[in-house]
């Protein structure tokens, strides 16, 4: 993380210095609007890819959380006992964004685990019609609450 911060700081300083240097030259005539776009720089490609990865991570988390929230049902026996808890599950996604494997990391009762497994087994792909670029492993908390 420290390396990333230092690299970003260095990039910002370089960009600022380059802009200051360029501003010392007189402006030439404006380019016509019909000129084709310049090729995208390597840094711009990396920035766009990182933004897409971030969107995919957010989309994956949101899609799985929405699916779980809409499909999960409270185990009847535990509801009668008024037991509330959280189940934590680690989900591994494949390159097309479908749940490949999952592992229950924390569960206070096997009934909660069974319900979470049932819901995760029916989870949809987190992206459609494109390759999934986000994190391959996500931690999903599933809360069972009487409220």
Sequence of strands across the biggest β-sheet: 2-1-3
Stretches with pLDDT under 50, minimum 5 residues: 1-29
Using the coordinates above, name the CATH class of the domain at 48-147.
Alpha Beta
Q: Give the tally of β-strands.
A: 3
CATH topology of the domain at 48-147: Fusion Protein Consisting Of Minor Coat Protein, Glycine Rich Linker, Tola, And A His Tag, Chain: A, Domain 2
The computed structural class is: alpha+beta
What does it look like?
The radius of gyration is 24 Å and the shape is elongated. The two termini are 39 Å apart. It is built from four helices and three strands; from the N terminus they run H-H-H-E-E-H-E. The protein has 147 residues and is an alpha+beta fold. It has a three-stranded antiparallel β-sheet with strand order 2-1-3, with helices on one face. Strand 1 (85-93) and strand 2 form a beta hairpin. It has a domain at 48-147: Fusion Protein Consisting Of Minor Coat Protein, Glycine Rich Linker, Tola, And A His Tag, Chain: A, Domain 2 (2-Layer Sandwich), CATH 3.30.1150. 14% of the residues are buried.
